[in-house]
């Protein structure tokens, strides 16, 4: 049995970040970036991938699907580039993801997509 030892680190903005020594570099970058997305905002898999320097946004989805703590690493704040919610949200499905986003103040259009005019976080602002 492999034991996973945790190390505490500080990231920009003094947000505490706990990481596994066995976590990949990409995973660490993604989880750090998730903590930069404020409540009431979302980003896209594509924008997150560009911010991290990953060529394929699907890598983001694969890593987020393994997230074990949505309170520390708010993966529910990542949506598709067209504003839709992915069907594979690992922490309760798309209905639960939409519920969490609404509770945080994310705005939706009448077609059910996220209203990017009000709720998009781009990592540049």
Summarize the structure.
Helices cover 33% and strands 13% of the residues.
Question: Can you put this structure into words, describing what you see?
Answer:
- This protein is of the alpha+beta class and 125 residues long.
- The chain has one domain: Winged helix-like DNA-binding domain superfamily/Winged helix DNA-binding domain (Arc Repressor Mutant, subunit A), CATH 1.10.10.
- The chain has helices at 25-34, 45-52, 57-64, 93-103, 116-119, and strands spanning 6-11, 15-20, 43-44, 78-79.
- Helix 1 (25-34) packs across helix 2 and helix 2 (45-52) crosses helix 3.
- The longest helix is centred in the C-terminal third of the chain and has 11 residues, at 93-103.
- The chain is globular and about 40 Å long.
- It starts with 5 loop residues before the first strand and ends in a 6-residue tail after the last helix.
- The model is unreliable at 1-19 (pLDDT under 50).
Cα-atom radius of gyration: 14 Å
Unreliable runs, pLDDT <50, ≥5 residues? 1-19
Order of helices and strands: EEHEHHEHH
Oligomerization state? single chain
Q: Provide the β-strand percentage band.
A: 5-15%
Number of domains: 1
Question: Approximately how much helix is present in the residues?
Answer: 25-40%
CATH architecture: Orthogonal Bundle
Q: Count every helix, treating DSSP H or I runs of 4 or more residues as helices.
A: 5
Write out the CATH superfamily name.
Winged helix-like DNA-binding domain superfamily/Winged helix DNA-binding domain
Reported by name, the CATH topology is Arc Repressor Mutant, subunit A
């Amino acid at each position: 049995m492999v034991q996973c030892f945790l190390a505490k680190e500080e990231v920009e903005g003094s947000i505490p970040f706990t990481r596994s020594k066995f976590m990949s570099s990409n995973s660490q970058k993604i989880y750090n970036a998730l903590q930069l997305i404020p409540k009431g905002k979302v980003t896209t898999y594509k924008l997150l991938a560009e911010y991290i320097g990953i060529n394929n946004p699907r890598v983001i989805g694969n890593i987020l699907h393994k997230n074990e703590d949505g309170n520390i690493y708010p993966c529910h704040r990542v949506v598709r580039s067209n504003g839709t919610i992915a069907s594979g949200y690992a922490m309760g499905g798309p209905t639960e993801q939409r519920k969490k986003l609404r509770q945080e103040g994310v705005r939706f259009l009448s077609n059910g997509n996220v209203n990017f005019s009000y709720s998009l976080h781009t990592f540049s602002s």
